[in-house]
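Title: Comparing notes on inverse folding

I've been comparing how different people in this forum approach sequence design from structure. To keep things fair, I'm posting one structure and asking everyone to reply with a full sequence. Here's the target:
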């Protein structure tokens, strides 16, 4: 499980000579290939940071400066100094397992309240993204605000910085503005944004949250037949008449496989060569969607060779792009070009459900009824590693499998948020050969390769059912996915895309996935699943649920999931419903995954992925006493396995010499495990984890 850190003691004003700590996302990268560099490495990863080895000075959005040293993958914070007019500011330096943050004391409460993006203070991310002082004189940010007042509120958001922020892009319908804050002006801009308060409770100018405008990265001959696309072609469905947008690094405008396919293109990066692809990633993904295979005699034909393409260059030739470039391209693709399917082989760092790109996906899907098919991320094999783009509820989030339908080690896994289900499904993403600039072909791996397989299949389904909107397409693709042995919804979603079944079958289920949660106070939770039959004949379905723990290794307890009926008949051109119930059963396991399968004697099959979480409602009043004197200017932290909900985590006092005491209110159905650290990097030795389930716990660490 991923780890959480809870600050337990005091922070320091000047942090000198702290122990070295690991700076990067520890996720595994895709396997190295002889013909291509693996896709999907985050700009904030250790590998990226390591390429900038040496000493760096980083000015934070508050105007404070941090000196840091990168040696290989190790990041050492050398000092943190208050900016002009900010005397008395202290700093909290925290290692959360995959990053090192330096948070000024007047920003900490806003970070905890969700009003400031933590990446604004992630030193490794800022260096890796090129925002250190040697390479950037400004800090690119985005503000989100109430979009109900559109342009007026965008102007207010900019004015909140006291004139110290320059507008870069504005998306008033989405409630997002992209700005640049000059580093020399940062202290004044920060005072304007926070009202000059030492303990601000909110942001000025109607700004609801300030984000770092971070950098995102790019996350056939066997794979296309593997998913059944030729069978769909033989039935007359090759994507003809369907427009698919590909937002990536552009495309080779002279490649024979694409020269007749692109009906509109635009560059959002300021590239001197326009939409030309100087990276190869965009050409590869575009040809996977709809390439003709002309340069290979048809061997490397895309999934939907009859579809037309709209190409937006939102990634530079160096394989990165600002979040605001992506949002601009999304607006253009669906708002101006009318694309109803958008393929985005792009990833950001794991996790924020309110990330501006995720918010934009949900808003644009609702407004334009367009399906965004996105990459889950290449941060596997750890759990809860879905990219912030992939967590969007309305997106169709795609993981990667090989040609044996085994999930790729690099493919990001769920759950997301409060144990939500992602990815939605998988596609072929290992050793995929497709077009690259220069008229030839190259082999790449990543969820970037899986995503266009699913987007192309969506085009085939859209051709057959032109009236189907985003949700119905998503229902069809997920419901017809092929099962894989030992799969769980947190790894595979509903399964691997099956183009042949998706096109031939007109029976769908909604919702295509459901995450349920129960407590001792509410021991059951239900979800109604609606089956829709678009054929002229009634269909009788046999229903069954299978479930395991989240890892897929242990069968779920009997009675965990039940159905209101074991069979149901869906009338011709009609609907029928069944209710799934999750029960609070006795189990040492708290998280489960499963699938509801509906099958007919005529061969129809619909899969609905299920998630089940069993938790207690008791709030444990817990006191943790750490018997250790950390010394002046140092920090004691307790690290624990997630998930965890806590309050009052900062109410910590030094009750006696060598004894720090912190009170927590915990809500968890299982014993919780902690271990103490000092300065967030030195693990205690000679002691095991400590279970926390209410009461008082004494910890005697040895460092």
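Reply #1:
Here's my take.
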């Amino acid at each position: 499980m991923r780890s959480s850190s809870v600050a337990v003691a005091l922070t320091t004003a000047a942090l000198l000579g702290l122990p070295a700590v690991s700076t990067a996302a520890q996720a595994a990268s895709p396997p190295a290939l002889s013909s291509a560099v693996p896709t999907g490495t985050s700009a904030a990863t250790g590998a990226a940071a390591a390429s900038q080895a040496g000493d760096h000075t980083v000015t934070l959005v508050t105007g404070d400066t941090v000196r840091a040293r990168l040696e290989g993958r190790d990041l050492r914070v050398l000092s943190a100094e208050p900016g002009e007019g900010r005397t008395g500011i202290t700093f909290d330096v925290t290692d959360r397992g995959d990053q090192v943050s330096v948070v000024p004391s007047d920003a900490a409460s806003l970070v905890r309240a969700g009003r400031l993006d933590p990446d604004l203070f992630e030193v490794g991310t800022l260096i890796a993204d090129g925002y250190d002082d040697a390479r950037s004189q400004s800090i690119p940010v985005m503000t989100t605000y109430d979009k109900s007042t559109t342009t007026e509120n965008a102007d207010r958001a900019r004015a909140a910085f006291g004139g110290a922020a320059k507008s870069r892009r504005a998306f008033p319908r989405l409630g997002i503005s992209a700005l640049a804050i000059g580093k020399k002006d940062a202290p004044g801009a920060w005072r304007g944004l926070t009202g000059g308060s030492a303990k601000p409770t909110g942001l000025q100018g109607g700004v609801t949250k300030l984000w770092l405008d971070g950098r995102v990265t790019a996350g056939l001959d066997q794979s296309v037949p593997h998913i059944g696309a030729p069978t769909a072609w033989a039935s007359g469905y090759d994507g003809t008449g369907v427009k698919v947008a590909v937002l990536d690094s552009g495309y080779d405008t002279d490649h024979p496989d694409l020269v007749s396919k692109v009906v509109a293109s635009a560059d959002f990066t300021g590239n001197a060569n326009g939409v030309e692809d100087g990276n190869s990633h965009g050409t590869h993904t575009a040809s996977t969607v709809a390439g003709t295979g002309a340069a290979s005699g048809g061997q490397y034909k895309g999934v939907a060779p009859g579809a037309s393409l709209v190409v937006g260059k939102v990634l530079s030739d160096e394989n990165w792009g600002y979040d605001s470039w992506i949002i601009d391209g999304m607006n253009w693709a669906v708002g101006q070009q009318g694309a109803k399917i958008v393929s985005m082989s792009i990833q950001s760092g794991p996790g924020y459900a309110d990330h501006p790109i995720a918010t934009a996906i949900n808003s644009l899907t609702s407004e334009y009824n367009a399906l965004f098919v996105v990459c889950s991320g290449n941060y596997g094999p750890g759990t809860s590693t879905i990219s912030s783009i992939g967590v969007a509820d309305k997106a169709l989030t795609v993981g990667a499998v090989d040609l044996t339908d085994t999930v790729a080690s690099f493919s990001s896994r769920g759950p997301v948020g409060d144990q939500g289900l992602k990815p939605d499904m998988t596609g072929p993403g290992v050793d995929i050969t497709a077009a690259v600039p220069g008229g030839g072909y190259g082999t790449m791996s990543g969820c970037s390769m899986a995503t266009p397989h699913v987007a192309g299949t969506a085009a085939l389904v859209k051709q057959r059912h032109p009236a189907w909107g985003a949700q119905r397409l998503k229902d069809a693709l997920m419901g017809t996915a092929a099962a894989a042995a030992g799969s769980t919804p947190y790894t595979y979603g509903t399964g691997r895309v099956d183009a042949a079944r998706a096109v031939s079958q007109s029976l769908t289920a909604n919702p295509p996935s459901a995450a349920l949660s129960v407590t001792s106070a509410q021991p059951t939770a239900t979800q109604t699943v609606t089956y829709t039959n678009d054929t002229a004949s009634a269909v009788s379905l046999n229903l069954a649920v299978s479930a395991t723990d989240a890892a897929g290794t242990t069968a779920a307890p009997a009675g965990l999931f039940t159905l209101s009926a074991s069979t149901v008949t869906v009338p011709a051109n009609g609907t029928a419903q069944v209710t799934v119930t999750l029960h609070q059963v006795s189990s040492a396991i708290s998280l489960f995954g499963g699938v509801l399968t509906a099958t007919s004697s005529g061969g129809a099959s619909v899969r609905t992925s299920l998630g089940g979480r069993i938790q207690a409602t008791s709030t444990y009043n817990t006191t943790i006493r750490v018997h250790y004197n950390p010394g002046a200017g140092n920090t004691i932290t307790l690290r624990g396995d997630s998930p965890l909900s806590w309050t009052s985590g900062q109410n910590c006092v030094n009750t006696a010499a060598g004894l720090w005491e912190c009170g927590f209110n915990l809500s968890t159905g299982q014993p919780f495990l902690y271990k103490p650290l000092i300065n967030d990097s030195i693990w205690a030795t000679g002691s095991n984890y400590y279970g926390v389930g209410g009461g008082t716990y004494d910890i005697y660490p040895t460092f």
